[in-house]
């Protein structure tokens, strides 16, 4: 679900999806600079340049960022097995209100990235990650003490705003450190957080719902967020090139007293950055067919996944008669599918990209990411049909297998779409991913709300089959169309790379 969130971020997430605005973030002047007062990297192998960090440091930072990305999606769906008890305790009288307890957290994912992305360019990735995580922890803790549904919805939304920051910043941090050839593995790890978070959360939430109170769902996730904060203090390293160069400039000014030292491009004031953060994603979404199609499909997969998350408890407790704790264990099928999707990405899809590049005389094109999208879409379709027609008709293991196949396909799709966008819009990749993140967050908010009405009208079989038909119509045709026409679309775009 970048999630996305992700990944989906919640998956986001596969979150993202989502992601900071990097348009003016990476000065790349010739080495050495002609202007003696210009502060830039000293040479192509400057050790302070994040792309020149040792591989161990890159992976250490990547895994730490992924922890921050992971903790918020855990909270996003952990309440799912305890929704009924939550609704009873806080006097929620309709299904819409009960499902809103999950969905309102995801709605905040559409708002937070617009602020956190630009702010990370002024204050750095690390500071924003730590501040936003502290914000999330405080409001998430407040959810556990809420005494009315109004308090709960307000606290839950504010916690989601803080939880959205890692999904907005994480993709940019990955892009800071890894080259295009290496980015596939790192993006796979990053995407796994927003997808696994909503899986692990309900497993723990099922046991909490059965043996404790729903309030411990929030108290326990807040404790975990404190642990991630501590890890971040030791292992999180600033990777934003613009921030690192500003620090270098400020240190040299302090040492030499030379006030003429400057960067190639000074950062814009925050209000102007926020204006760009609002306008650029809208412009890209409305003028770029590549981003328009990828954002819609990413949002669709994200929304479908969250619909699956919130309807899982009813399937296992009502249809199959399991207890909330045992029913929560069925989320393991989504976790297993996530690992299969990541393994498939690392062992199959990345090598395909490299082989296509070799056959093209060592020149890579963004369209070489399309096999990942096609493979993932086929798997997602198979998984949805399998899941749809096995619920209540076969042994409980069969819907789990279908959910796992769907999740594996979703991971591959998100991997292909996010890397395709980054490769196609390198300078404007952050704004492009921000457009995708906002749309998929709105889908993650909306899909669970209409899920009970759709399944009441069509049943699990035809209701989920309807979702599968859309993956056929979009996911099977889009890769072929972009394989043929993608280069032409980029050639006439003033935003695309090159």
Can you tell me the number of structural domains?
1
- Taking Cα atoms only, what radius of gyration do you get, to the nearest Å? 22 Å
Distance between the termini: 29 Å
User: Based on DSSP secondary structure assignment, what is the total number of beta strands?
Assistant: 2
SSE-based structural type: mainly alpha
Instruction: Bin the strand percentage.
Output: under 5%
CATH level 1 class label: Mainly Alpha
Q: What CATH architecture would you give?
A: Up-down Bundle
CATH homologous superfamily designation: MFS general substrate transporter like domains
Mean pLDDT score, rounded?
A: 82
* Largest sheet geometry: 2 strands, parallel
Shape: globular
Low-confidence stretches: 1-30
Number of helices: 17
Major beta sheet, strand line-up: 1-2
Report the CATH topology name: Growth Hormone, Chain: A
Pfam families: MFS_1
Biased composition (Polar residues): 1-20
InterPro entries: MFS, MFS_dom, MFS_trans_sf
Subcellular location: Membrane
Describe this structure in words.
The protein is mostly helical. It has one domain (38-491): MFS general substrate transporter like domains (Growth Hormone, Chain: A). The protein has helices spanning 55-78, 83-89, 95-107, 112-123, 125-144, 149-177, 183-211, 215-235, 241-256, 270-287, 289-319, 324-328, 332-359, 370-390, 397-424, 429-475, 478-491, and strands at residues 38-39, 262-263. It is found in: Membrane.
